[in-house]
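Following up on my earlier thread - several people asked me to post the actual chain instead of describing it. Fair enough. Here it is, all 291 residues.
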Amino acid sequence: MTKVTTVAVLGAGTMGSGIATVATRAGHRTILHDLTEERVERGIATVRGFLTKSMELGRLSPEQGETAIAGLTGTTDLADLAGCDVVIEAVFEDLGTKKDLFGELDGIVSESTVFHTNTSTLSVTAIASGSRRPERVVGTHYCNPAPLMKLVEVARGQHTADWAYKVTADYLASVGKTVVVAKDMPGFIVNRFLIPWENSCIRALEAGLGTKESIDAAVTGALGHPMGPFRLLDVVGMDIHQQVAMRLYEQLREPRFAPPPMVERMVAAGDLGRKTGRGFYTYDDTRLFGS
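Reply from S.P.:
Thanks for posting it. Predicted structure:
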């Protein structure tokens, strides 16, 4: 059985940076990969920013924080991932891109390396078909923001082996995550509920049912959610919400998954949320995590 010590995360965007934070904070040597040095450096800065803020807030001791920061490196070369025990893919939601990545990695990593895909809209089985060893591929969808949310949905592909699933479950336990088993279906569990609900909240705002503040307050105060829908959308990013919603709509053809017109307008205006400093709310601190 594989003992996980070194983890690679492919994609240094919001989700990739969050997943890398989770891995290095738990003491795993972590390599963050992306296509350009600029993206890698931006992702590493995001992770370090979260860890630094966690130390400032007393959630991590200085020793823990410094160890986590030291355990993170970045690269643009897939060859640097040769010694990794787990490779976590968190790149753009494009089936061909994900398949090609896993196919290329087959010739780099060992046969015991487990591949995780953070997809929530594409088929794990289809992504796994890009690898010569589809039995090593497991779906692991981290709830956003990954460093703060405990839940990870785990979905087997059609050929996922028991050993790969066991390595995955043990790894997720080592980073403090709670596993929910889902079927390999569009949206898994969380996004099948979340995307239509978020769209409903946006439509309610468009219709004048309430202000963004009043709707957020109603959801947190009466429904017990830790964060209102518009605060959550600002963390996730309106561009990401639009992409996920459209992919689910294209597959399921249910109108409740189609993003409302406000989403398109905000994306076109660059009002993506916290990462751009403005979304439904405005932000002086554009760090995505630890707010």
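Residues 193-276 form a domain with the N-(1-d-carboxylethyl)-l-norvaline Dehydrogenase; domain 2 fold (CATH 1.10.1040.10). That should answer part of your original question.
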